[in-house]
Amino acid sequence: MSTITPTQPVAPAESEIEVGGLLAEFRSAADVVSAAKLLRRQGYQNLEVYSPHPIHGIDKVLNAKGSLLPWGALAGAIIGLTGGLWMAWWMNAVDYPFIISGKPMFSFLPSLPVAFELAILLAAFAVFGGAIALGGLPRPANRLFRIPAFARATNDRFFICVDEADAKFQTEKTKTLLQDARSVRIESVPVIDSRESKLPRPFVLVAIVLSVLALIPPVLIAKARSTTSTLPRLSFISDMDHQPKFKAQTTNSLFADGRSMRPQMAGTIAQGDLRDDSAFYRGIQEQEAAGSVSGDSEGNVTFLTGTLTANGVASIKDEQPKNVPKWVTEFPVPVDESLIRRGQQRYEIFCATCHGIGGDGDGLVTLRALELEQGTWVKPTSLHAEPIREQPVGQLYNTIANGVRKMPGYASQIPVRDRWAIISYLRALQKTRTATADEVPADVLPNMRELN
Amino acid sequence: MATATLNEFDNTVIDPAVRPPLMGGENSLSSITEQVASLAERQHAPRAWKIAFAISTSLTVMLFALIGYLIATGIGVWGNNSPVAWGWPIVNFVFWVGIGHAGTLISAILFLFRQDWRTSINRFAEAMTIFAVMCAGIFPAIHIGRVWFVYWLAPLPNSLAMWPNFRSPLLWDVFAVTAYATVSAMFWYLGMLPDLATLRDRATTRIRKIAYGIASLGWTGSSKQWRLFEKAYLLLAALATPLVLSVHTIVSFDFAVSQVPGWHTTIFPPYFVAGAVFSGFAMVITLMVPARQFFGLKNLVTLRHLENICKIVLATGMMVGYAYATEFFIAWYGGNKYEQFAFINRALGPYAWAYWTMVSCNVLAPQLFWFKAVRTTPWAMVVICVLVNVGMWFERFVITVTSLSRDFLPSSWGYFTPSLIDVLMFVGSFGLFFTLFLLFCRFLPMVAMAEVKSVLPESGGH
User: Fold this and answer.
1) Shortest Cα distance from B381 to chain A (angstroms)?
2) Cβ of A100 and B167 within 8 Å?
3) Buried (b) or exposed (e) across A158-185, using 16+ Cβ within 10 A?
4) Quick check: A56 and B460 CB within 8 A?
5) Is the pLDDT of residue A20 over 80?
6) Contacts from B63-68 at CB under 8 Å and sequence distance 24+?
7) Chain B residues with CB-CB distance to A51 below 8 A
8) What is the C-alpha separation between B8 and A98, in angstroms, rounded?
9) All domains of chain B, ordered by start, with CATH?
10) How do residues A206-224 score in pLDDT, each as one tens digit?
11) Is A95 on the interface with B (CB under 8 A)?
């Protein structure tokens, strides 16, 4: 567009039509500031100054408005801070409650570091993005770039561009004005070319094709997530999904019998096999302990109401099978004072926390749980209640070993002998509430005083 | 402004009546452009650059090969083992993050304090920050073992319907380091926009025109852009300042929030931040002295710049030394036997060699900076600053390894020995750092031209 050769007078006839504005070059910041002042005094509005470094005071001359950037930073910081706190609260207290040592699900201070970092990050995004966008960037094409002399705007020269859209703009007059303001060179700026503001056609086509192609993977993922498939799932990194090991009930060519599972070696005993004293280890009478699953006296396994006999013929029974084991009613260990003392000590370690020292179901854990009122706690039954008092020792033993209702089994914590010791102490504990005067040894009775 | 005219180049003389110039020699707008931009425009790289680049890229390749080996094999290839589950990888992480801090300090905090001398070195230091944070980020990322689950660190919806624990300092760390890397990169890039435009306008080949044209986003230097630029730069500096303090604070929380004796102390945040600034400035000297020599930037990066940095190294070194002393005092005064043992064990236990290396390098070596002759002799400062970096690596080693190797129960004590992979990976991280740095020196404006121009006397600078 620039048909005018630089530094030569502009031919009036063509300039009035062709010129999009004037670009004047200056040697120093001081010159460009005074030129801008001059033009402003003359009433020019549509000015822009270009310089290799920021010129202080130019904003006042050009009557520039304050920027929105600080407000953007403030908004970013507020969103980051509240968003961070909300994230910590919603993720750790609502959607996936993190229970850590009974602490509150949400607390302010530990949520602060993330919220603080997000506040800074979002504020910085707002500032950075704001500075780029408000500055009209990115803008790869610019009509000023067509003027070779303008390249020095980022090096050592200062420029003023007066747009022809300015009400005061008159090519010759403006040019004279700029020359008087010590401009060293004046160029005419090409008018805005309509091609400039448009992307080249191939770019547009490629962009459309790429954006359509980019939709394919998310669509496929969405389809895969919402439908079922008979194929095994794709495993890019198998982690420990597939382990080289022999599983139970599978074949294995390594052994002559073709089985993965190995029979017991001659002369060895499997763990737990020595525990054949059913009364001691299980609290159940000997004859009941034949099978590991409860069954009837003929050794047949019962499944709910059906019975599978030894020869494989199933018969349906009309009545409910009696699956209650025959509990041991007598202690399978000798009970003496040392056993009861041991039992008391173990009881106070393992049982009293929930059941209470006196066995009334008022242990510290219970009291705290009831205080929290979270609705998940079942108060333990008082050990002095009638049904507990009447339970055979075998059943009590079974409760300690395997648990009952909400109470977990303590088999892994309390050894077999200690379980019996606890039961012996429990029996003594129960006696403290029910014993009559004639059950108390005669030599102790005079030392007792009336309670309540 | 009274400006001393110095023919022979010594602006370290302090004369209260004369304000020493920020730069040496006769500088004009175009001479600065010429001097800085020509470094990034050379057709062929100098021989020394090629040799350095060949070495550092080889080390980088080694680093990534070892990372591949580690991912394929598992983190057992490191020396990490119970009780020292945090070995060199975490030491290296803290070391590299700390180095980064000087860059932000120079670019943000000195900017807020209107320390104009920073303009010659801030680009350089910011680049160092970003590359150091990149090196730092690698170590915790591969330390998680199954790197393909690295996205579990972020609060992203996943098939486990599970969220990260917001009360864990390790999660805070993820946010802090990511925010720090992002904000530093934005700060660096925004500051570089005008200089990229300079390179674009000087470009002679088509490839350079297109590359710098895209990178500079069409910057013209209009007063509107400068207004936004200055405002944004100020705001980013104001945001980066609390950020840089928070990052190493949170890194120190990784240790301080745990209950291991020697870690569970409230002094850690300020102590870590001072240590980070200390090591970062030492690294600036280590890089800056050879670079100004090699690239002929002596009149922009003057001896006075280096002297100022030496003073900061001395000051922060004393803070670090004070923190060492305070730790011991509190261990004694606090009356906690485990804490007392942890510190006696540090100084006199099996890692005493590491402890006293740390003290000599960090506390004793910088004391030489009390002498002006040392502060103004480039080779002497490089030697001291390399020692400081060695010492700061050992500081993190001492904190991490001595505390973990002997915590509460003597039955679980152990002695940590790094594996060869540990050592090679640390060396490789230096390779990555220098590769990025050499690329930066070759293709990007090493000195913030526009900022230097604005502090020239002729532009009404200060």
Assistant:
1) 33
2) yes
3) bbbbbbbebeebebeebbebbeebbbeb
4) yes
5) no
6) B63/B138, B63/B424, B63/B425, B63/B428, B63/B429, B63/B431, B63/B432, B64/B428, B66/B421, B66/B424, B66/B425, B66/B428, B67/B138, B67/B142, B67/B425
7) 221, 223, 226
8) 68
9) 3-459 (1.20.1630.10)
10) 999 999 999 999 999 898 8
11) yes
Fold classified for A276-452: Cytochrome Bc1 Complex; Chain D, domain 2 (1.10.760)
pLDDT band at A293 (very low <50, low <70, confident <90, very high): very low
Mean pLDDT lowest among A150-159, A316-325, B136-145, B191-200:
A316-325
Give the nearest partner residue to A154 out of B221, B223, B243, using CB atoms.
Answer: B221
Contact A153 B166 (CB under 8 A): no
Q: Name the more confident of A415 and B17.
A: A415
Q: Phi/psi zone of residue A449: left (φ > 0), alpha (ψ -120 to 50 degrees), beta?
A: beta
Percentage with pLDDT > 90 across chain B: 41
Which among B190, B214, B221 is the nearest to A128, CB-wise?
B190
3-state secondary structure of B305: helix
Residue of chain B nearest A240, judged by CA positions: B146
Task: With a cut of 90, say whether residue B302 has pLDDT above it.
Answer: no
> Does the beta carbon of A136 lie under 8 angstroms from any beta carbon of chain B?
yes
* Portion 97-126 of A in contact with B at CB < 8 A: 98, 100, 107, 110-111, 113-114, 116-118, 120-121, 123-125
Confirm or reject contact between A133 and chain B (CB < 8 A): no
Q: Is A50 close to B220, i.e. CB distance below 8 A?
A: yes
Kindly list the domain boundaries of chain A, sorted by start residue: 16-209, 276-452
